[in-house]
Amino acid sequence: MKPVKSVEILAVPGIPLVRKDDDLARLIGEGVERSGIVPRGDDVFVLAQKIVSKAEGRMVDLATVEPSAEAIELAGKIQKDPRLVQLILSESVRVVRSRPGVLIVEHRLGFVMANAGVDQSNVASPDEPQRALLLPIDPDGSAARLRERLWSRFGVPVAVIINDSFGRAWRRGTCSVAIGAAGLPSLMDLRGMPDLFGRELQVSITGHADEIAAAASLVMGQGAEGLPVVIVRGLTWRGTDNTASELVRPAAEDMFR
Amino acid sequence: MKPVKSVEILAVPGIPLVRKDDDLARLIGEGVERSGIVPRGDDVFVLAQKIVSKAEGRMVDLATVEPSAEAIELAGKIQKDPRLVQLILSESVRVVRSRPGVLIVEHRLGFVMANAGVDQSNVASPDEPQRALLLPIDPDGSAARLRERLWSRFGVPVAVIINDSFGRAWRRGTCSVAIGAAGLPSLMDLRGMPDLFGRELQVSITGHADEIAAAASLVMGQGAEGLPVVIVRGLTWRGTDNTASELVRPAAEDMFR
């Protein structure tokens, strides 16, 4: 007797360091081909946010940032570099919480997250320590464009998720979520499906792309390992495709911001 | 060239419906043996909360619940069954948010969650519609006991996670998290690990068991599928084991309750 259902999470080895204007779809395609992995139609390609941002030129030299009076004042309160705070504020629509060392904002895309996703690690060599990396301008759009390229290259309708590590309310430790997605239901509505006893399921809208993002993160690892492209294979889902923006709870229905 | 790293998520088929006082470790062991899966030392057994709760007799007949005046008043405001609200309040230390249809509490174990995890779906046959299932009394303890039994049965030091679907602040859709764990670092501290360029990682404490819980949820599925036991194979981790209680952010450092 065999397991009835299994999912594989495969790291694509040998993805080079990504730089501005690199053709990311090509780098991924070549990496996959070198690995011997043959993509299938149900494969979900999960890409670390940092490689998408880097290819899209979202690296900013902090020396070019002129902090506003607001950024300087806030930076003093929370003990951060005023130029970094300026970048964070520029990426945000409002500050949700701040205290020394912590700045949680509502990102312009609706994500409630630390530092608007602006990241100083894994973005530059030690010779260039003054850079920071912003989220992609439009991660759902990036995912859709990359999906089209990968679909075209491999001839099968793969899905794409761009993931990033987020802190959470109420729980310690980061957990990866989907900030961009194409080709699958990011938010999956199971309402109306019967439960084991034919009663309608009660809690039945799942953050499907977020669970895939978290699963991929287990293989991507952190730090020196650097495996920013992962394929999640063998998933089944139902419902129509929707983007990662569907995972953002609108402010009007949010009780915690 | 082969993928350098991969993780498999295997559903254990044929786990029977679990009832009070069932020997859950034996049911899981027998299911695994029938499946042909041979457990390895790095396997993480992820168990759906509902089967642990059921085996531990945490099903409550609503007809036996006498709602307090407080429960009756709150139930009127939020339009829920007063007996269910009584159960939720009995499992909680305080109400965090309430509005019609929504009751978010701090569970006695510290989890900030809807309905204190009290679940009416997938818990009874249509002939017995008046029951509700509570979380295990001590999910970390349950995970540790089950781990010991599975380790003994299979001769390898497997890890165990008990998962449950939680709603999140700021994001739509549920995502599974770990409510109990044994044999692995639930909260994994990567501080001090160098990033790709030798700089210390900035965001580097991960909710490791939560990411595993979410990954397993992709295979467990929902509703009629009923695959409550999943093995996550091929993970590597570092650091000392700690329980799922480590994932609960203490109220004193929480900015959102």
Helix content of chain A: 25-40%
Q: Can you identify the CATH superfamily of the largest domain in chain A? A: CofE-like
Taken in chain order, the helices and strands of chain A follow as EHEHEHHEEEEHEEEEHE
Low-pLDDT segments, ≥5 res of chain A: none
CATH topology of the largest domain in chain A: 60s Ribosomal Protein L30, Chain: A
What does the largest sheet of chain A look like?
A: 5 strands, mixed
Give the strand order of the largest sheet of chain A, numbering strands 1, 2, ... along the chain.
1-12-2-8-9
The CATH architecture of the largest domain in chain A comes to 2-Layer Sandwich
Largest interface: A-B, 89 and 89 residues
Specify the structural class of chain A.
alpha+beta
Domain Coenzyme F420:L-glutamate ligase-like (chains A, B): 15-234
Protein name (chains A, B): Coenzyme F420-0:L-glutamate ligase
Organism (chains A, B): Bradyrhizobium jicamae
InterPro entries (chains A, B): F420-0_g-glutamyl_ligase (IPR008225), F420-0_gamma-glut_ligase-dom (IPR002847)
Structural account:
The structure is a homodimer. The radius of gyration of chain A is 19 Å and the shape is globular. Chain A has helices at about 25-35, 50-55, 70-80, 80-90, 140-155, 210-220; strands at about 5-10, 45-50, 60, 90-100, 100-105, 110-115, 130-135, 160-165, 175-180, 190, 205, 230-235. Chain A has about 260 residues and is of the alpha+beta class. Chain A has 6 helices and 12 strands. In chain A, the strands form 4 sheets. Chain A has a 5-stranded mixed sheet with strand order 1-12-2-8-9. Chain A folds into 2 domains: about 10-55 and about 135-250, 2-Layer Sandwich (60s Ribosomal Protein L30, Chain: A); about 60-135, CofE-like domain (CofE-like fold, Alpha-Beta Complex). The mean pLDDT of chain A is about 90. At the A-B interface, β1, β9, β11 and α6 of A face β1, β9, β11 and α6 of B. β1 (about 5-10) of chain A pairs antiparallel with β1 (about 5-10) of chain B.
